[in-house]
Specification:
Strand order of the largest sheet: 3-4-5
Number of strands: 5
Largest sheet: 3 strands, antiparallel
Structural class: mainly alpha
Strand content: under 5%
Distance between the termini: 34 Å
Shape: globular
Length: 646
């Protein structure tokens, strides 16, 4: 209990200090110190919690009327903030949706939910421990990385521009606190409060630069995510009305027995998770988040925000396993998103946009696993969450650092990056390989996903996974090939990369490798016990004995990739360019007509086949149709009855 309270409260204290401090040196000390403390405290909590965990859900007796009122106050404050910005920027829809959400949330909280006691307000289990690591260690590393990045970012601001970094770093740490609230709250009201705090923090971070594009994309995010918040509030009402509880643990227990009304609650909670995880048709808010500084993108895409969405969906997997309507909705939306966004990533040359579509696609795969709801699918989903968080945070930070030093985030401008930024290129290649190449953990998790899909007999899911994975291989291989090209002797431009950036990159790279190497141990200690705690004897069929072979192979690959760093014995030779070399440094040669030709290598992006205008509408309308049908069927299942609490 003390550890959980510390993890929730301490980031808020750090945020308050950062909001007040203006001096660069003091900010650096606070961010480095707070990040280190949060990371260490998260690991310490996991270590101390494992004996108590022992393969079961640990419910913590804690209830507080004061916290209930604080949650209500935060809900009102969030609405005030959104309404203020909606009025300031004349955004009608944001104001309307914020008003609807706050009215609905207050009615549910004050008139219904607060009548029900949740004596065990907090809890933790294997999935919570996994998320604690992601939030505390990866999230803190991103905050530390932001120190150097935002220093360079501020230098590129117009002369005389106000330094708003105190606001930026304060929001980053509030984000971490809200995520801890989400993963530890058994009380759905408390969980909803943390859920909405991440929504408004994301809104403010996306609009940080205050450009027209940033403001437009920030409002797109808040509108879509507050629509998901409305779904969450409706789910809480239905849960109180039919099941007479606002305990997540109790709802999952009732839902696992297909209690009346559980399917409808699961549909609305599934809708909330889908919006937060940026699944089609809501993928555009996450793409719009790319206008924000890179640390924001890394935080939203890897360790927070979108992970809150898939966290909730995976928690609900036992309910999806027995409730057919929400299961089909979540499963199909996730599958459609995975395949379509993998196709869309092929047509992108902007590095951050490729990462964005890849993120949405991988979240789609996790969502589909949650919808399937079998023990094998949940096992796969847990590791997809972990490996995606590690590799994607590494890649986002690499692209941000590269952009500041080569002046572009376009993949086609990353020619000779292996020479221009040798260490960074290796980190980037490690992140890319971690996403799609054997024997890294992501591919093992995808294999487990395939097995779980085959076991369900869902042919459509198997086809979706096959085509989506093929597209995944194509866009990652193109990028990897661009990085691996070595020719010429360009100037090394990574000599002035900030130490905080190198520290964060090194930490996430080491963790990516360590997680792959220790995958069997993580499975045995955390994930398998979690699956057993949820599914009982059914979860005992999962075995990971052969995974150590992949672990050994990962070590070999990493040694080959990083073994040459710092070597002085590298011998350079002239580049053979299928003709008579003319200028090695300029990469030119004499062609068959005795003319001078510059050697270039560019990727094929197939925009005519996989462009956004062609592919995105198909996925969007298919997902909309699935969700509309699911909501109708869920209401039909309860006879359109709307019970009122007595």
């Amino acid at each position: 209990m003390a550890f959980i309270a510390f993890l929730i409260i301490f980031p808020l204290v750090a945020a308050a200090a950062l909001a007040l401090v203006r001096a660069e040196s003091a900010r650096r000390i606070i961010v480095l110190g707070a990040g280190a403390i949060i990371g260490i405290a998260s690991i310490a909590f996991i270590v101390t919690a494992l004996p108590a965990y022992g393969g079961k859900i640990v419910l913590i007796a804690f209830d507080s009327e004061i916290i209930d009122h604080i949650g209500t106050g935060i809900t009102i404050l969030i609405a005030v903030v959104v309404l203020y910005f909606a009025w300031r920027y004349k955004n009608f829809w944001a104001g309307i949706i914020a008003t609807i959400q706050v009215v609905l949330a207050l009615v549910v909280e004050t008139l219904f939910a607060h009548q029900l006691d949740v004596p065990y307000g907090l809890y933790f289990d294997g999935l919570s421990l996994l998320m604690t690591f992601i939030i505390g260690v990866i999230g803190s590393a991103i905050c530390i990385y932001a120190l150097g990045y935002m220093e360079d970012f501020q230098k590129h601001e117009p002369e005389g521009a106000r330094d708003r970094r105190p606001f930026f770093f304060a929001l980053m740490f509030v984000f971490l606190s809200a995520m801890y609230v989400i993963v530890f709250s058994n009380n759905l009201i408390w969980l909803f409060t943390g859920w909405e705090v991440t929504t408004v923090c994301s809104f403010l971070l996306i609009g940080y630069t205050r450009t027209e594009e940033a403001i437009r994309n920030a409002f797109r995010q808040i509108i879509m995510n507050m629509a998901g918040g409305i779904g969450f509030a409706i789910a809480i009402y239905c849960c109180t009305a039919w099941l007479h509880t606002v305990s997540l643990y109790e709802f999952i227990a009732y839902g696992s027995m297909a209690a009346p009304g559980a399917a409808l609650v699961a549909v609305f909670l599934g809708f909330a998770g889908i919006t937060k995880a940026a699944q089609m048709p809501f993928q555009t808010w996450l793409l719009g988040a790319m206008v924000a500084p890179t640390p924001t993108s890394a935080l939203l895409h890897s360790s927070t925000m979108v992970k809150a969405g898939v966290f909730l969906l995976v928690k609900l997997a036992p309910v999806f396993a027995v409730c057919e309507v929400p299961s089909i909705m979540v499963m199909l939306v996730g599958g459609i998103t995975f395949m379509m966004c993998s196709f869309l990533a092929i047509s992108q040359s902007n590095g951050k946009r490729v990462l964005a579509y890849s993120t949405i696609a991988n979240l789609g795969l996790i969502t589909a696993c949650a919808g399937v709801g079998t023990p094998e699918a949940v096992w796969a989903a847990c590791f997809l969450i972990l490996f995606h968080a590690l590799a994607k945070s590494l890649l986002f930070m690499c692209v941000g650092t590269a952009e500041h030093h080569i002046g572009s985030r376009d993949i086609e401008d990353m020619d000779l990056l292996f020479d221009r930024m040798p260490r960074l290129a290796r980190f980037m290649m490690l992140g890319i390989m971690g996403m799609f190449i054997a024997p890294f953990g992501m591919l093992i998790a995808k294999w487990a996903t395939l097995v779980s899909f085959v076991d369900t007999g869902e042919v459509a899911l198997i086809i979706i996974l096959a085509f989506g994975s093929a597209a995944t291989f194509m866009f990652w291989a193109k990028w990897l090939g661009k990085l691996a090209g070595i020719a010429g002797s360009p100037e090394n431009v990574e000599l002035d990369v900030h130490k905080t950036e190198w520290g964060a990159l090194l930490l996430t790279a080491v963790l990516t490798v360590a997680a792959c190497v220790l995958l069997p141990l993580l499975s045995y200690v955390i994930v398998e016990p979690y699956v057993v705690s949820v599914y009982g004897v059914l979860g005992q069929d999962i075995a990971s004995d052969n995974l150590w072979i992949a672990s050994i192979c990962v070590i070999f690959v990493v040694v080959v990739l990083f073994g040459g760093i710092g070597s002085k014995k590298t011998r350079r030779v002239s580049v053979y360019l299928a003709g008579v070399g003319d200028n090695h440094d300029e990469r030119t040669f004499r062609n068959s007509l005795s003319g001078i030709t510059t050697a270039t290598a560019r990727n094929w992006y197939m925009e005519d086949f996989f462009g956004e205008a062609r592919v995105a509408p198909i996925g969007v309308w298919a997902s909309v149709l699935v969700m509309v049908v699911a909501v109708i069927l869920a209401f039909v299942g309860v006879g359109f009855g709307v019970p009122v609490l007595m």
